[in-house]
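Example record for the data management plan.
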Amino acid sequence: MSDFKPLTFLEQSLLLDRLVSRTAMHDGAPADTVMVLDNEDAKALVHLSMRLARLAPYQDRIERLVMGGK
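Corresponding structural encoding:
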């Protein structure tokens, strides 16, 4: 997995949008679904999970920086 280039924030967002679109009905309601992921999407999800876990301790600081909070 070390040869996998981390996704940009935009690419991460698009990946999640693709997954959400597979799990929603045409009217937007959530649907029970069984999903098959291709190898690239599966790798991307593993790396996204690891990245979020590393960022989690800094969430408050990141939110203040991005949102301009106190």
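Summary line stored alongside the record: The mean pLDDT is 87.
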